[in-house]
Write a structure and sequence with these properties.
This protein is of the alpha/beta class and 223 residues long. Helices cover 48% and strands 17% of the residues. The protein is built from 12 helices and 6 strands. Helix 11 links the parallel strand 5 and strand 6. The relative contact order is 0.14.
Length: 223
């Protein structure tokens, strides 16, 4: 509950993030409103931005509603986000205690932006380091959700990249989007990958820092 509520509160568009999580739980506005004993128009107004962003107290009630309804349905969604067993394709995954400006993140990993002109006005709430070859061959739908941890506002760092098409095609096809995508020592970055990142308004970075150094730097930053 804390992780989901925190992402909504810290989001630059709380209504959009609220809607994303409601849809992720497969709950209609009517069912959520009925559970909370409020009008569906209240939920609609929050999500569309017509009503002032709800405070943390209201957001906690809404998120509790997500969890209660999911529990009634067998906790199907929360089981997908169970990070107790990490997927084989995930090298490292971590949530920051406080958000990190994208510009600072880029400097920390010595990253270069491949889709020039893209806005870096974003905050990073965590990161996931992914073995791209294992992801291609073994990443199932539940594992795909696990790479986002408890916030999609994160950096997805792909290792073992040959051309970079597959990661961006997968990201393009899924409704959940990361804040930043990083290719660690790619052999080559295809123009299609750069174009897809630009279409999704996602900064695509390249770094030549080793995986071990990347993880050490990111973990040290959050001490």
């Amino acid at each position: 509950m804390e992780k989901i509520a925190g992402e909504i509160v810290l989001s630059s568009d709380p209504g959009k993030t609220l809607r994303k999580w409601r849809e992720e739980f497969g709950i209609s506005q009517q069912d959520l409103a009925r559970h909370l004993s409020i009008s569906p128009s209240v939920i609609s107004d929050y999500e569309s931005g017509r009503r002032k962003s709800p405070g943390i107290v209201i957001i906690r009630k809404i998120v509790t509603g997500f969890l209660d309804i999911d529990e009634e349905n067998g906790s199907k969604v929360l089981k997908k986000y169970d990070l107790g067993q990490k997927s084989d394709c995930i090298i490292s995954i971590h949530e920051f205690r406080s958000s990190m400006p994208a510009e600072d993140f880029m400097k920390l990993i010595e990253g270069d932006v491949l889709n020039k002109g893209i806005s870096m006005d974003k905050d990073i709430h965590g990161y996931t380091v992914i073995d791209s070859m294992k992801a291609i061959t073994a990443l199932g739908s539940m594992d795909y959700l696990k790479i986002y941890g408890w916030s999609s506002e994160r950096a997805l760092i792909f290792t073992g990249v040959k051309f970079g098409r597959s990661p961006m095609i997968a990201i393009r096809a899924h409704p959940m989007k990361p804040a930043i995508v990083v290719y660690q020592k790619p052999e080559h970055v295809d123009e299609l990958a750069v174009r897809l990142a630009t279409l999704e308004n996602i900064p695509l970075l390249r770094t030549d820092v080793s995986v071990t150094q990347l993880v050490e730097r990111l973990e040290r930053m959050d001490l």
